[in-house]
């Protein structure tokens, strides 16, 4: 382990490298999941002579700077892939401040691909900035009404993704995303059970499903769940209508997945880059 002292402010267990038992006050480099939401802290650390680096804390999260005109105040940014790097540059971030680092969490997603005789469909409930129970209920009702006679339907939930559990469901998969060291390996392992993933918008979980070769379909427009003032998000899947065709169709992906996620960097290489920002 490098002698450079660093501290990590994690979010949703996204930091994929080793952590030191070092506080931000003791560290030379502070890795943080966001800078514009932690602006006071970031500026305090910078004022103390520390380098502050934002790591992409969820797939698509760096597009916030471009799509929602968020300020970029950190010293550096660790992008999952070249597509998020390009978005940062379009948002005005100096290319020299960006490292395409990938993320160790995605390096070893072990799963056992299999196909069920009766398709298993998993609805990924919307995790949003405010309660979207009514939206999730409407989507789940549509899925049950159209697909229930021909498939087994399950629901994926986490904190703040509320939905009413119905008797027609075959099961619920709840994920604890906080300080969960096995979060990503568990995702990959459990995804092996399902054939089709239906999502309102593409999330980190859906990205993992795509990496595992699962069929993922986006079944909502942003206007269905966004309120005035809510942030815009990025889509890489076309809108699909909920129908029995989804049980047989192959999903269309609008980007090159190799440009979404790079090979992960070594922590010592990251520290050397960050130290010289």
Structure description:
- The strands form 2 sheets. The chain has a 5-stranded parallel β-sheet with strand order 1-2-3-4-5. A 5-stranded parallel β-sheet has the order 8-7-6-9-10, with helices on both faces.
- Strand 9 (about 195-200), helix 6 (about 205-210) and strand 10 (about 215-220) form a beta-alpha-beta unit.
- The chain has helices spanning about 40-45, 65, 80-90, 135-145, 185-190, 205-210, 265-275; strands at about 5-10, 30, 50-55, 75-80, 100, 120-125, 150-160, 170-175, 195-200, 215-220.
- Helix content is about 25%, strand content about 15%.
- It is elongated, with a radius of gyration of 20 Å.
- With about 280 residues, the protein is of the alpha/beta class.
- It has 2 domains: about 5-105 and about 260-275; about 120-255, Rossmann fold (3-Layer(aba) Sandwich), CATH 3.40.50.
Summarize the structure.
The protein is of the alpha/beta class and about 280 residues long. The protein is about 25% helix and about 15% strand.
Question: Could you say how many structural domains there are in total?
Answer: 2
The poorly predicted ranges are none
Q: What is the name of the CATH class of the largest domain?
A: Alpha Beta
- Relative strand content: 15-25%
Shape: elongated
User: What's the total count of β strands?
Assistant: 10
CATH topology of the largest domain: Rossmann fold
Instruction: Tell me the number of helical segments per DSSP (H or I, 4 or more residues long).
Output: 7
Helix content: 10-25%
**Which architecture of the largest domain does the CATH hierarchy give at level 2?**
3-Layer(aba) Sandwich
